[in-house]
Amino acid sequence: MSIETAKIHFNELGTPIASDFDDVYFSNANGLEESQYVFFDNNDLSARWLQWQKNEFVIAETGFGTGLNFLQSLQNFMHFRQSTPDAALRNLYFISVEKFPLKQTDLEAALTHWPQLADLSRVLVVNYPMPVSGCHRLQFDLARLTDNAIGSVTLDLHFGDVAEVFPALYAGRNGRVDAWYLDGFAPSKNPEMWTDALFEQMARLARKDCTFATFTAAGFVKRGLKAAGFEVEKRKGFGHKRDMLGGKLVEKSPASNLSYRYRAVSQLPTDIAIIGGGLAAANLAWSFAQRGLNTQIYCADNALATGASGNAQGGFYPQLNADASPGSQIQALSFLFARRRYLDLLALGYSFEHQWCGVLQVGFNDNVRLRQQNLTDKRNWPAELIHAVDPQQSEQMANVSLPYSGLFIPQGGWISPKTLTHALLTASIQKTNTRVHLNKMLVQLTRRSDGWTLHFADGSQSDASQVILACGAQLPKNDFLDPQLFRLVRGQVEAIPAQQALAGLTTVLCHKGYLTPAEQGRQALGSTYVKQDESCDYRHTEGEQNLATQRKSLADCEWPSALEHDFVGRASTRCSTPDHLPLSGGVPAWHTQRQLFAELYKARPDDYYPLAAEIPDLYVLGGLGSRGLTTAPLLAELLVSQILGHPLPLAQPLLDATSPNRFLIRKLIRREED
Ligand SMILES: Cc1cc2nc3c(=O)[nH]c(=O)nc-3n(C[C@H](O)[C@H](O)[C@H](O)COP(=O)(O)OP(=O)(O)OC[C@H]3O[C@@H](n4cnc5c(N)ncnc54)[C@H](O)[C@@H]3O)c2cc1C
Ligand SMILES: C[S@@+](CC[C@H](N)C(=O)[O-])C[C@H]1O[C@@H](n2cnc3c(N)ncnc32)[C@H](O)[C@@H]1O
Prior knowledge:
Blueprint: E1 8-10, E2 16-18, E3 23-24, H1 31-40, H2 45-51, E4 56-62, H3 68-83, E5 91-98, H4 104-111, H5 118-127, E6 134-141, H6 142-145, E7 152-159, H7 162-165, E8 177-182, H8 196-205, E9 206-214, H9 219-228, E10 230-236, E11 243-249, E12 272-275, H10 279-289, E13 295-298, E14 314-316, H11 326-347, E15 354-355, E16 359-362, H12 366-378, E17 387-389, H13 391-398, E18 406-409, E19 413-415, H14 417-431, E20 435-437, E21 442-448, E22 451-456, E23 461-464, E24 466-469, E25 487-497, E26 508-510, E27 514-515, E28 522-526, E29 530-531, H15 540-553, E30 569-576, E31 583-588, H16 590-596, E32 614-622, H17 628-644, H18 652-658, H19 662-670
Parallel strand pairs: 4-5, 4-8, 5-7, 8-9, 12-13, 12-24, 13-20, 16-26, 24-32
Antiparallel strand pairs: 1-2, 2-3, 6-7, 9-11, 10-11, 14-19, 15-19, 16-18, 17-18, 21-22, 22-23, 25-28, 25-29, 25-30, 26-27, 27-28, 31-32
The site of flavin-adenine dinucleotide has 41 residues, from helix 10, strand 14, strand 25, strand 30 and helix 17.
């Protein structure tokens, strides 16, 4: 959903000021030194990082503003990793919440104030998300920012109000945050933010020994933090300022009010097996590799990406509705994350076939035009993400005759899932000791005391501490998964010879079918939907059907009737779910959950019910349906974060919407029998 951006101006010293709050984003005197003193030093981060025994450290902040605190923490972490490469701490997470994000141009202008941060500022500005509410995960590989530093910094930038974002963050039983930067405009200028509810959320999200620091010494803030469970000290303020506050959480008692929907495991895996060989497996491997962790990938076929991910060209865009339903939010956030991931991969020097040529959703009949009008009228999505075009603009965008209005997604395009899968796995292998094992069809999993033994069709076996099932259309065959979670749909896509009449096509066209610009003498034209058919033979009849769909949808154009085809193409099986949303998380222990939650229909508070029972060390990522290019990266990142016990890049309602046990929970709430 769109979010309102900040109105700012600059004073005579060049300091940015929020017009509505009449307050500065950083101090006129020396914002950088103040940030270092108040937030970094008063959380004692230099000393704590040196002694830290965990792999990750988590800072959380109220009010991202210009990102100055973030950039400074990033710079400090970079120096820490450079000067102490053997330190246990490798990955820094920085969670920040912003209700009124700066426009990208304002952010760029504000950060010119700090030439000493110019390189890092540029990276932030380039990656800065468009104003869509929700969590935007930005990942920074230290090796790319500076020589001799290994590690990563992850920024979870939540666009929304702290009052809504923090309660929706999953904290697990033991919390997630190690240091709080309690920033925000002065309490006198922004009293709505400084509430007891915020202080309580700070305590809920805090891990044991979590510290905090804030520039204010207001009495009610001090009392509120104390009441929430922090030990609060008045300390010397920065420069001429008399006081500020700092302190520590007194005691962490394990949370009781956890969701019964899922359980997050928190242990560093030693030996992770991923079953699959397509987009899901490759994205999982890359998310682990970015944190320096190896994986073993077991693929049934004699080559990677021979299933649904084997197509030469796939449309890359979010499937948005007029309303910001959970499904649409997942699509929007996933799309923006995926695009950042793909651009990063290219910047790292890995290549895959693609074209950032935009995607045009053609308004080819009255119903579609009405739906598109509704989406534009409701203004739930920023124009940078999706905007209306009239027939004249459509023709300009597409560079072919196309007398239809439509919706244009400028950051979309087409990507080859096959070469992308290879690029992600090559990057993972080059960064870590990740290995791909071909011709390894998993046929059985047996539980050991500390993990799993994997049994393959060729009679071989391997052990693993954790197993992730990412095997697309084969998921319903797995003994541990309920087949009712999945809907399999055969799809055939044509690779028509590049057409003279379409030589100028400059964007992907989507209607009832789709058509891409040419790549290596072929254009993708798709695709059929055949339910309950898992065979993957190429069918002439479906080729005709695909051509007919183009001609029928674009009946006002002449060129579709002249399309020539030599009936080359490929078919594979989409793995979807009954609600069309992807599925990512621990594999539920179905029978136990049925018993534990038999009384869900009574709608007692969440903490009345026990935690979700999950099969230990067994996870699933699948149900990517027709939008795997869009959803696989963020869903993989979510699952990896869950497995490691790190902060999660989706808020609670979206976690619920992608949880593997959501169908069971819905059934139990409605008291439906199987
Ligand atoms: C016709 C068609 C058109 C599509 N068009 C688009 C599009 O335009 N845009 C888009 O974003 N998405 C599109 N999709 C969807 C997209 O291709 C999928 O969402 C995505 O490829 C799924 O990736 P996956 O890794 O989950 O599954 P797959 O790519 O199917 O990979 C599954 C892997 O698991 C392995 N495997 C299976 N069983 C076992 C086992 N027992 N042991 C070991 N390995 C096993 C297989 O060898 C395979 O490598 C399309 C799909 C189809 C079918
Ligand atoms: C002083 S600025 C923060 C400066 C910032 N930490 C930096 O390093 O540049 C305060 C920020 O808090 C944001 N803010 C104010 N109220 C908020 C709320 N209720 N929820 C989230 N953000 C809020 C403002 O929009 C503003 O960007």
